[in-house]
Amino acid sequence: xxxxxxxxxxxxxxxxxxxxxxxxxxTTVVETTARITKSNTEDSLFGTTFHTPDTIRAYLILRxxxxxxxxxxxGNGVNGHANVAHGGxxxxxxxxxxxxxxxxxxxxxxxxxxxxxxxxxPGVLLCRASVTRSERRKYWxxxxxxxxxxxxFAEAEGLFIGVKEGPKL
Length: 169
Description:
The chain is α+β, with helices and mostly antiparallel strands. It has five helices and nine strands.
């Protein structure tokens, strides 16, 4: 699913806060290949496992001048309890968005998460992330998972290490 198609997904188009965010002149859609199945199994979690009408129905990465945002439409196939997303899925969404805030391929060194409220499914979420500090290939990033109207479900902060380019010698 292309980023343009995801921006027009009915789950996003039907919510006023999503429409406002997507129409903002300071918001840019980020093309991503994370939702595409690859022959080497890279990105298979988001490209295959979480790419169904019952799991993550739509996924869109955005940038503003100050942060990276992800719109995520969750189905009931990510539940740990009845109509509540599994905590591991919440952490995974935060991990993907905080990693995207780095701006290029990286590995998660650590990700500390605080759960504030249960994430009810199905539903559309907004994940916010920004780099708070960087040093060479190290990036400290923080973020939240919320409902787009100010209710925060989880907060995270982590350290991401940029992937070295080229072969090891």
